[in-house]
Amino acid sequence: MSKAEQNRQLIMDYFAAWSAGDVEKGESYYSHDFVSYQAGHSALAGVFHGKQELHDRWIAPLLEMTGNRWYVSGEPEIILAGDDGIVVIVHETMERDGKGKISTDKLVVYTIRDDKITTCRMYDGDQGAIDDFWS
Question: What gap in Å lies between CA 45 and CA 2, rounded to an integer?
Fold first, then answer.
């Protein structure tokens, strides 16, 4: 199996964990020096250094604000898979009391090293709508 195929499988397994709502397993795919970037201007936008900071400043608040109503599609659309990374489009749906429901197609660029995700860059299709949803 080529490195690109291994990276494709790693990302499919990673999204299967998130689709099942298994936060701990999803976070286990991150390297010790993981960095994540979320585009936008909301409280959930920014740069997150390490999986703990991503959990504390992005995942936990998102789950709290949605009352655990954050749904990640299990089958991302793979745009490009290479030896050191992968680019996907993933469909997410979130619900918030007082805000209703919103869906987004998110472009995500991953860098992978030693079978771990080292960087994650997330860009929502309608960033303004997502920023409004989180305000």
Answer: 34
For the chain, how long is the longest CA-to-CA vector? 48
33, 118 contact by CB (below 8 A) = yes
How many other CB atoms sit within 10 Å of the CB of residue 123? 17
- What does the pLDDT profile of the chain (135 residues) look like in tens digits? 899 999 999 999 998 998 888 989 999 999 999 999 999 999 899 999 998 999 999 989 988 988 888 888 768 999 999 999 999 999 999 999 999 999 999 999 999 999 999 999 999 999 999 999 998
Alpha-carbon distance of 90 to 8, in angstroms, equals 14
